[in-house]
Amino acid sequence: MKNVIHWFRRDLRITDNPALNAAAEEAAQVTPVHILSDWKKSHRWTGPNRQHFLCGCLRSLHGNLQSIGSRLVLRQGDAVAELEKLAVETRAEAIFFSRDPDPYGRAVEEQLHKMGGRLGIAIRPFKDIAIHERDEVLTATGDSFRVFTPYSRAWAKLPKPPVAGRLQHLSTPAEPTSLPLPELGFWDLPAAAPGIPEAGEKAARMRMAAFLDHGLARYAALRDVPAGRATSRLSQDLRFGLLSIRELHSECLKKADALDAEGRGSAMKYVAELIWREFYMQILWNFPGVQDHEFNPKYRGMVWPGKPEHLERWTSGQTGFPIIDAAMRELRDTGFMHNRTRMIVAMFLTKDLHLDWRLGESHFMQMLTDGEIASNNGGWQWSAGTGADAAPYFRIQNPWSQTKRFDADGTYIKTWVPELRDVDAAKFLEPPAPGLRLAKDYPPPLVDHSAARDITLDLFKSVLR
């Protein structure tokens, strides 16, 4: 072929990019394009942190493409309409892209196939976001898995695709016009949190190398400790495709082979988290209704009787539960929250404050730099007790005992809640006496955990009855 288009979506890199590599191999000239959304201000599924990170990713991608003789073309609006215009401009014979597991992305792909058929343009989708997609990991009867452990066993047995290197050259037509690289003001959004990590493929690869060298071998021992940086912190890089999931998985296995037995076990614990990511993706792909409804049909229509004003106290980190407030302020100030505290605050919202999990899911998607619809939905429904392979409804984490297990010295709490920096950390391990505060300018606990737990048990039992 003479001219084709590569549509960058969630694969903002030039290393091990199957769709981009195929386009470069099969055509003389490739027009790389990213279509910017045209919504403004608040949005259910994203916010300033993720859009700020996206801006940095696009700057990096444009620079990387220039280094191999190409450039990034930016357009804005309806993706299919803009791709049709660009195809006519460049006389493109095909459009290459990576498939999306989200319902909205899949709907766009359906429209793209229709457009291609109408114009006689080949539409070439590729697997990239997951190692194994929706119809690859199936039960013996050909059904989708609903429980993680058997899914992970079946996932591990499948052959893994190869990893390609960095693209060395890409020739792009000179004609296509492009919008300038965007800033946050492009979407009329407020400033992002100050703690957003550096964006771009180079920064992501440096984070991956640091984790493989210094974090993988001790991941299992430290993964639940929210203080410090014991986890990989690669979630935003996978979300935007700055890293190939195939390469990360392959490098983890290579590193594991060089470690002792304990280190190998730690590495495989991390690999299990990569499999969880794909488990939730196939749940969303095969059961798209989870975006709006409880995965477990027994709990659909469940009433959450919490107070609306409690949601604001939760989002602002003013609940009077130190571990909860620390986590919510970390999210506010960095666009990130540790996985352990994500579970703690999610269970607190649903099972202490009795507020609908969808409220928390939406808040996370608006705040998280790594906001991944599948993982976020899966995590929230797991914590609420309504999801795939979820924690049973009667498993309710106690914020005070969770603090004792994972932040007994108060390091994490004191990092994010300055009002408590001079308070003895032992006071974070159990609720203060009624009417007392941990500090003068810090609120008393919003609810009594034990009483709230009893209410939660009654709520779920009444639904089951």
How would you describe this protein?
There is one protein chain. By secondary structure, the protein is of the alpha/beta class. The protein folds into 3 domains: 3-128, Rossmann fold, CATH 3.40.50; 130-162 and 201-286, Serine Threonine Protein Phosphatase 5, Tetratricopeptide repeat (Alpha Horseshoe), CATH 1.25.40.80; 297-464, Orthogonal Bundle (DNA Cyclobutane Dipyrimidine Photolyase, subunit A, domain 3), CATH 1.10.579.10. It is built from 18 helices and 5 strands. It has helices spanning 18-26, 48-67, 79-90, 103-119, 148-157, 201-214, 219-222, 235-239, 245-257, 261-286, 308-315, 322-334, 339-352, 357-367, 373-384, 399-406, 411-416, 449-464; strands at residues 3-8, 29-36, 73-76, 94-98, 122-126. Strands 3-2-1-4-5 form a 5-stranded parallel β-sheet, sandwiched between helices. α5 packs across α10 (261-286), α12 packs across α13 (339-352) and α14 runs antiparallel to α15 (373-384). The longest helix is centred in the middle third of the chain and has 26 residues, at 261-286. The termini are far apart. The model has no long low-confidence stretch (mean pLDDT 95).
